[in-house]
Write a structure and sequence with these properties.
Blueprint lengths: L2 E9 L2 H17 L3 E7 L12 E7 L2 H9 L4 H10 E9 L2
Antiparallel strand pairs: 1-3, 1-4, 2-3
Helix pairs in contact: 1-3
């Protein structure tokens, strides 16, 4: 069953974040992941959630999503994201 990483990102250092964006796609692909959403301009239709940038990644299954997030090669790239932004990430199973 497919699994999804849903990320709400607030970028406070766009130049550094561009470095992250340039390095992460091959790591996502290595684990069978694909980008479904990668960008800004989210529009709140209900509630008070007001993200500035939303990213949705699809993986073949939960194990692949976790393998991506836990990949030792991703750790230094993730550190770039942490320096350039703050955010929240959840993992959900597909239907």
């Amino acid at each position: 069953m497919a699994a999804y990483l849903i990320v709400d990102i607030d970028v406070h250092d766009p130049d550094t974040y561009q470095t992250y964006i340039a390095q992460v796609p091959p790591l996502v692909a290595r684990h069978g992941g694909t980008y479904l959403v990668r960008g800004g301009n989210p529009q709140t239709l209900e509630g008070d959630w007001a993200p500035t940038r939303v990213v949705v990644l699809q993986f073949p299954d939960e194990a692949a999503a976790r393998a991506f997030n836990d990949d030792p090669d991703y750790a230094p790239v993730k550190a770039i994201r942490h320096r350039a932004s703050t955010g929240n990430m959840i993992l959900v199973q597909g239907a």
